[in-house]
Amino acid sequence: MNVALRWSLLAVCGLTLMTSRAQAQTTPPADQAPPIEPIPQPDTPPPPPPAAAPEPAPMAPMAPPPVVTAAPPKPAAQGPLKIETPNGSNIKFGLLLQPQLQSVSSPTLDGYSNNLYLRRTRILVGGTLFGVLDYFVDTDFPNLFLATNVMGVAPAADTAVKATPGMNIQDAFVTYKPMGDLFKVDAGYMLPPLAHNAVQGATTLYSWDYFAYTFLSGNSFGATPTLSPVGRDLGVELRGLVLGNHLEYRVGLFQGLRVGQTATEVASRNMFRATGRVQVNLLDAETGFFYAGSYLGAKKILSLGGAFDIQDDYRYFAGDVFVDLPLGPGVLTAQVNLAHWNGNGFVALPEQTAVMGEAGFLIAGIQLSPIVRAEHLWVTGANDQTRLGGGLAFFPYGHNTNLKAFYTNFKTENAARAVNQFNVQWQLYFF
Question: Which of 208, 220, 282, 406 has the fewest CB atoms within 10 Å around its CB?
Answer without folding.
Answer: 282
